[in-house]
Amino acid sequence: MWGINCIGFSDDIYDEGDMMERIFTERAHLMCPHMNFGIVMSVVKEFDEEKIRKAFERLSDAHPFLRAYLGYDKEDNSYFYDVTDSSKIGIKISDSELKDFDDPKILLEYDSLIGCDWDISKEGMLKTVVWKQSDKTVFLLAFHHLLADGRGALNLALELADIYAKDEVRQEVTEKLISSADDLPQNLGLPFLSRKLVEKANRDWEKEGCENLSYQRYHEFADSFVKNDKVTISINRTCPDDVKKMAGECREHSVTINDLLMARMYQKEKTDKIIIAKDIRDSLSFYNKGALGNYSTAFSVVIKNAEKDIWTLADKIHKKVQKTLQSPKDLYLVLQCYACLKPEVLDAAFMAAKGAFKSKSAEFIGKMFFGFDSPKGYSITNLGRIESKNVENAFFIPPASPAIRKTAGVLTINGQMTECICERNKTMED
């Protein structure tokens, strides 16, 4: 049954001096539907409901954002993590047992969890389902993007596995987010054209005199949108021996596995642009290890007229990716745009692009910057390779942004690589 994992639900909140992290670059994820993603993992530990609930309690004790709702300050139209003294993790302990790690119940439950827009002003940002599977325990963790990015979600899942399997206790981690453009590594500002477009959008918003889009108005629209915007999920697995072979071939051609996966997507989908994410934790001086929040950027890799030879194409991709990684102005471009746009424009961008909010400036940003008017984009998020004694298997379900036609989430654990594909029905593009 569903329930909030807390002892004595309390409305008491922390003193503002203890915790008041305001949403800054994460504002782009606030009023955008389908900002959910998942981690599924099989933990090498027998199913024990009492220990499961205890593990979630210890996890929330260590992470303030797991005890938070979305807060709102009307005075300056800002949003923040309203941290309370009790866990807001939604927990469902399933009565049924999984046949195996491929049991369709897992994706059916995930679809049920994300089949509506979460009202995070009233519910937490992590929902979970737990099953018994033979002598192991399977966890489905569904995240709201305001809680974490993909890397943060994986780290949290591994932390949960260690707490559950080894009965560990973790110390609380102070969560500190990007709070201004000055927090970005090598803050170089926006390139000339991007800066002019952002400045124009901000000026036009002021001239339009639009009323700020409220979160509740957005939520009502998003809930209807999500219920009618169908996304299918499929899983592809590559066994350890084939992953080793793939890695060896990539080394021979001086490319990465992700370069190869992108090359396959370019060829199969006949696209000329793929968006990828880049973890920037190591570049942020204020980041506290293990903290939740968003600490990543994203950029597009454009390849015109993709070569038929997969390795020639992968080499071209590799060079383009490395060039961006070595150029802070290009690497942090999307975060700079978030930082420089008026938050009210970011809030209204999705609904304006869909014709549900009247603002030419927000409509321009929603269509031209984000592509919200029609889902035509492609993306890959690769969380890398890990080894774990406590987690036997795992996979990552990526967020299906309304701008995306198809996205792949990749995770390699204990040698096995799993690609989880989220694909929007073609009819939804119309």
Task: Give a brief rundown of this model.
By secondary structure, this protein is of the alpha+beta class. It has helices at residues 27-30, 49-62, 105-113, 150-166, 192-208, 215-228, 240-252, 257-269, 310-325, 328-331, 333-340, 343-353, 360-369; strands at residues 2-4, 36-43, 68-73, 78-83, 90-97, 126-133, 136-144, 231-238, 273-279, 296-302, 377-386, 391-397, 404-413, 416-424. The strands form three sheets. The protein has a six-stranded mixed β-sheet with strand order 1-5-6-7-2-12, with helices on both faces. Strands 8-14-13-11-9-10 form a six-stranded mixed β-sheet, sandwiched between helices. A two-stranded antiparallel sheet has the order 3-4.
Ends apart, CA distance between termini = 38 Å
Largest sheet: 6 strands, mixed
Major β-sheet strand ordering? 1-5-6-7-2-12
Using the 3D structure, state the CATH architecture of the largest domain: 2-Layer Sandwich
Structural class: alpha+beta
The proportion of residues forming helix, as a percent range, comes to 25-40%
Q: Please tally the β strands and state the result.
A: 14
Summed over residues and divided by their number, the pLDDT gives a mean of 93
Poorly predicted ranges: 1-18
Gyration radius, rounded = 21 Å
Whole-number count of domains:
2
Tally the helices. Answer: 13
The ordered string of helix (H) and strand (E) elements is EHEHEEEHEEHHHEHHEEHHHHHEEEE
Shape: globular
